Request: fold
Amino acid sequence: MGRNAANERKEQGGSKRRDATESTALIERFMQVGVPPGQRSCRRIVLNEYFDGEEERPCQGGEEACDVCRPSTELQRAMAGTIDVAGEQATREQEAGGHEPAAFTTGVMTSTGIQEVSVDQDETQAFRESQHDRRQAKEIEMEQSRRQEAQTRRIKSRLEEWRGKCISCAIDGRPFDHSAWRCEHAKKCGAYDMARMVQKSTVLEGKFSCTMCFAPQSMCHWFAPHPSKPGWYVASRTGQGKVCPFNGIMVMAFACAIHSSEGPYYRRKWASDATADGLRVEDIEEHVTKLEAWAKRGDGPIVKYVGAEVRLNDERMSRWCIVFDNTIRRVEEMQSIWAGAARARREEGP
Reply:
């Protein structure tokens, strides 16, 4: 028993001396990381190798970075915009007496381990600004896409809502629940003759719109989805008669608006839209009301302008759809103003 106890004490003493030696070596390796100052490595490599047997595994995401790798973490936060680089730099400059260097050295994780890089503060700020610009551009693109989607739905809704109604009488405050093609007021003001001329002279760019109503085939009741080609449509006139149910609705709405008692207002608004789109015609507000402006089929700047193809997201359509949507929007805005004025007069009493 005495000899066994002595042997055990000797073994334990040897184990303790080995542990002490290994601990001393570990501490020395741990403390030598980052020395001299220009050297870059990672303290966690030493710890992971000793405790877990993992070789060359530095600080990773989800772990608290060691003091050697921490500058790299701060750089990543700065680039992500999660810290105020300018504010922290000003604080450091104030603490250092205003002698903060324009660049600093940090460690960056690469496929071969931690690499030393020099980062300029101006470059970091420029990177953040470029990220901000890209985010803004993406937000603008998404907002434009949402607006175009809403406009597409609005055009389809207004085709249904104003089908068989007279824009001329709606603008002039008369009952308008009848077709403008059969309205005597539309004939007297010149809207009927102009609409007939426009209907014959317009040549649509592309093959994605109905040639009678100028609406996209996806919105026209005369067309149905192609059985084998996604995004294409085929004529399907069964049960719809010989005439497109929206026949002439867009051109008649525009003709009635610019020939109505509020014609100057609608002509001015349309001319502003067309000019913004790049159309250049002398005396455009007056020229658009003249039949000779629409006399030649597919020819003339105004005819080509309204027949051109435009896109709202993935929906192809003629520019007549945009003209129609803007016209109806302004008619509805004016009706809302009139309705508000009428309510105010009723509330005031006699």
Q: What stands out?
A: The longest strand covers residues 103-110.
